[in-house]
Specification:
Length: 363
């Protein structure tokens, strides 16, 4: 045998191989009796022979070692994985997920018995109704007033339960898209087209967000919807020109209504100003008339008080003052009748005597 030595021992490296003897012909913890050192080259050669016998087909030992190292490296690359800060890892044993979720960092698993799937937990955007190659059709929806509109919207969502996101539904991304599209079609079908185009778009987006979240919670997808935004609403391409005309007419209607409101406000303001002026004048006239009446009544009362003290004198004074007012504007000529009619010249121009007084009064 190639491993037999001069002692003819039975060990694989020439030792005695007897009881309490080591592989080099010595007992445990005892030096060799003959003091001969082992042949290192022969030991290496014998090890290579034994390894060659273990390898299939007796291939070269160097190639076998390289293959083993490659297999070990490949296994190590599969068994060790890294989770990024925006990711979470879900490990599974023979396809059954573990309860724990791997956080950011370096992790180890027993591959291929254990596998891992990484899930992005950052906020993501899902756009719905945007068809490729500029083709419409995916976002066409029927409104409550029997109009067809093309709705393009997007939603921002985050994964809060990676385990549920991966294993509760078969295709979570596709499920999210289908749920969002179905809910949007339902709410668009309840509203007239005018609400979708301009009037109530924000309120519809909020209602759609809440309905999508309710449906996803019922499916236990492990996703939270942060925002739903209706980005564009347009008519189908076949009727876009007619729709533009309708929109233009509605804009003209709004413009004319605005102008009418401005004119009405202007006229209403002028009328209110005139009414306020008339009310102020009426109030001033009222105050003046009341003040005059109060003054006249007080004067009358003062005269009456004097009249009660001396009725004859007061009556005579009132008579004289009244006659003075009456005769001051009269055109009569008073003559003394006691002188007789012969004392007055028959040709006395009485009318001419009164003219200067009339002119002076007129001036």
């Amino acid at each position: 045998m190639p491993w037999s030595n001069q002692n003819g021992g039975g060990g694989p490296w020439g030792g005695g191989g007897g009881k309490n003897q080591g592989p080099w012909g010595q007992g445990p913890n005892r030096p060799r009796g003959n003091g001969t050192p082992p042949d290192l080259d022969e030991i290496i050669r014998r090890s290579q022979d034994r390894l060659k016998n273990l390898l299939p087909g007796g291939m070269n030992s160097g190639i076998g070692i390289i293959v083993i190292l490659l297999l070990a490296g490949f296994w190590l690359t599969q068994a060790v994985y890294t989770v990024q800060p925006d990711e979470r890892g879900v490990e599974s044993v023979f396809g059954k997920p573990k309860d724990d979720v791997s956080g950011p960092g370096l992790h180890f698993m027993l591959w291929p018995v254990e596998t891992v799937e990484l899930v992005n937990v950052n906020e993501q955007q899902q756009r719905i109704g945007f068809s490729a190659n500029d083709r419409q059709g995916e976002g066409l929806m029927l409104t409550g007033d029997q109009n067809i509109v093309n709705v393009q919207f997007s939603l921002l969502f985050s994964v809060i339960d990676p385990r549920a996101y991966l294993y509760n539904v078969a295709e979570p991304g596709k499920t999210l898209t289908q749920v969002a599209d179905s809910v949007m079609r339902e709410y668009v079908g309840r509203r007239p087209a005018q609400d979708i185009f301009r009037d109530n778009r924000q309120a519809i987006a909020q209602e759609v967000k809440e309905a999508i979240q309710t449906t996803l919670d019922r499916y236990r997808v492990g996703v939270v919807v942060n925002t739903v935004s209706i980005e564009d609403v347009s008519p189908p391409r076949e009727v876009s020109s007619a729709f533009d005309e309708v929109q233009k007419a509605e804009q003209d209607e709004d413009r004319m209504l605005e102008q009418a409101n401005q004119y009405a406000n202007k006229v209403r303001g002028q009328a209110n100003g005139e009414a306020a002026k008339i009310r102020e004048e009426a109030a001033a006239y009222k105050n003046r008339v009341v003040a005059e009446a109060i003054g006249e009544s007080q004067r009358f009362l003062s005269v009456y008080e004097q009249y009660k003290k001396a009725p004859d004198i007061t009556r005579k004074r009132i008579y004289l003052e009244t006659m003075e007012k009456v005769l001051s504007s009269s055109k009569k000529v008073v003559t003394d009748t006691n002188l007789g009619s012969n004392s007055v010249l028959p040709l006395l121009p009485l009318n001419d005597l009164t003219r200067p007084a009339d002119k002076g009064a007129q001036q």
